[in-house]
């Protein structure tokens, strides 16, 4: 019986690609579960020192804005001992399921570099040899952007949102007793969303590479993008310029970096 010769990357069939994708998902899931198991063993620290920390008035972000408010006579809503709401669990398995899902979320964040590495291995057969050499740089830069986004979401967007939503009330008759899942939804959604938003330069890189986005397009819609950023910052921050600038400036920098990346990719495409 003749031996089967192993196909090269360029000779892989559609089913072979599906098989590779399946194993990518399997390995990524295993990595997330392992990291989630580690996070689960430190759940007390994660909940007390990380997740519920933004509810306390001594959280570093509140202290920063309180100091600014006292120094420059801004809005003093951040000068408080604790946010004016209670957190409650209203289902029998609420705290246990919350512990599990939180561990999985932390597991995803910790396993993100490994997931990127698996993704890179999956797409590398379609890249040129010189492009494959940038694997390590791609993993490091993309992971760094993601973690920076998570940190930005946790220390800036999330406390500003919690302060706004926690102090918002339609009547003194209504008392805020926030469901545990609702509170955690804000925490997780904000952190992961900001992590993904900070991947904008990477997304623009790939979109520019395949010709779907150009630097000219990004420059044309720059003013609209800035308006959208200002609207978002105005919603989640107190009504002062300093707070809005702290939220808006990183987003503007990301957008401008994306334009530079797109312009470089467009020039490179013309010379090839």
Describe the 3D structure.
This protein has 272 residues and is mainly α. 72% of the residues lie in helices and 2% in strands. It has helices at residues 14-41, 43-51, 60-72, 94-123, 129-132, 135-167, 180-197, 200-209, 215-220, 222-236, 241-271; strands at residues 86-88, 177-179. A two-stranded parallel ribbon has the order 1-2. The chain starts with 13 loop residues before the first helix and ends with a helix. Forms a complex with TatA. It is found in: Cell membrane; Membrane. Belongs to the TatC family.
- Strand percentage: under 5%
Shape designation? flat
Radius of gyration: 23 Å
Major sheet strand order: 1-2
Order of helices and strands: HHHEHHHEHHHHH
Instruction: Look at the structure and give the mean pLDDT.
Output: 83
Largest sheet: 2 strands, parallel
Membrane topology: Multi-pass membrane protein
Function: Part of the twin-arginine translocation (Tat) system that transports large folded proteins containing a characteristic twin-arginine motif in their signal peptide across membranes.
Subcellular location: Cell membrane; Membrane
InterPro entries: TatC
């Amino acid at each position: 019986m003749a031996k089967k010769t192993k196909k090269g990357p360029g000779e892989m069939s559609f089913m072979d690609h599906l098989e590779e994708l399946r194993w990518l998902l399997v390995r990524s899931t295993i990595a997330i579960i392992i990291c989630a198991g580690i996070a689960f063993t430190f759940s007390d620290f994660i909940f007390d020192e990380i997740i519920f920390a933004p509810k306390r008035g001594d959280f570093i972000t509140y202290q920063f804005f309180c100091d600014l408010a006292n120094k420059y006579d801004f809005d003093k809503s951040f000068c408080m001992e604790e946010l004016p709401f209670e957190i409650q669990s209203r289902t029998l398995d609420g705290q246990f399921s919350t512990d599990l899902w939180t561990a999985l979320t932390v597991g995803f964040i910790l396993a993100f570099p490994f997931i990127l590495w698996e993704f890179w291995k999956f797409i590398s057969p379609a890249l040129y040899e010189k492009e494959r050499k940038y694997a390590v740089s791609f993993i490091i830069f993309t992971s760094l952007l993601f973690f920076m986004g998570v940190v930005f979401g946790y220390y800036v967007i999330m406390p500003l949102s919690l302060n706004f939503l926690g102090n918002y009330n339609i009547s003194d008759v209504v008392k805020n007793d926030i469901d545990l899942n609702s509170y955690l939804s804000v925490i997780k959604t904000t952190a992961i969303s900001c992590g993904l938003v900070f991947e904008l330069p990477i997304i623009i890189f790939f979109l520019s590479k395949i010709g779907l986005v150009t630097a000219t397009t990004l420059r044309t819609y720059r003013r609209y993008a800035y308006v959208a950023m200002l609207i978002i910052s105005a919603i989640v921050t107190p009504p002062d310029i300093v707070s809005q600038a702290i939220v808006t400036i990183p987003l503007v920098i990301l957008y401008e970096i994306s334009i530079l990346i797109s312009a470089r990719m467009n020039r490179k495409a013309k010379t090839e």
